[in-house]
Amino acid sequence: MSSSKNLTLHSALVVRSPFDATLLDIYRQSHGDIDITWTPTTVLMKNIASGLTGDVVIVTDQAMDELIELGVVDAASRKPLIVSRIGFAVKQGDTRPDVSTPEALKKTLLETRSVCYSIGGASGIHFKTVLTRLGIEAEVDAKASPIPEGFTAEKLITGEASLAVQQISELLVVSGIEIAGRLPEELQKVTSFSIALFSASPLKNEGAALIDIVTAQASKEAYARFGLDCRF
């Protein structure tokens, strides 16, 4: 059950930028406050398996399929939300490296001082497979600055990394950074996310209102500003 009278949202990090920028305020103006936990899908799924509950959840399509099969979420409430792509960022003012082709990316990763990726995030898990495909996993990991979860671009600000990789919308959560480019299409992983109500939610009306707001046609611009493609 929800831990308070406020609506509880458990969400993958991918939509944090558009939600924080405008979409959550639209909900708050009409329905009150909302308690939010931002967590990578992989970590969120482990938490749900350990008994975590709430009102609304946003995870990858594959994870949502699992939650529906388990009866954790209400299948009828599920709506497709966004598609996300993985990209790279540098600290604002730094030279943007060439990541436009697999060959250019390989050269950049070998030359960069340190790259930060999220071990628990879908982007970081995929990035490890990219390193393997490029044949440079050992070399890059020897100087990498991985994090368990959270926003990789924060390591650009602290100076611990010179290049950050993550979903583009997640990179843009951190101010003082610039997008250097996307993973080349040959290496890209396009991830689809959905939103739904927890089956045991006591606040289904409020939860449905949030889902309606974040999947409204008027909300598309908010996602587009942060490099996300809508699926509604």
Automatic annotation (TrEMBL):
One of its GO terms (biological process) is molybdate ion transport. Pfam families: SBP_bac_11 (PF13531). InterPro entries: ModA/WtpA. GO terms for molecular function: molybdate ion binding. It comes from the Bacteria. This is ABC transporter substrate-binding protein. It comes from Rahnella contaminans. The lineage of its organism: Bacteria, Pseudomonadati, Pseudomonadota, Gammaproteobacteria, Enterobacterales.
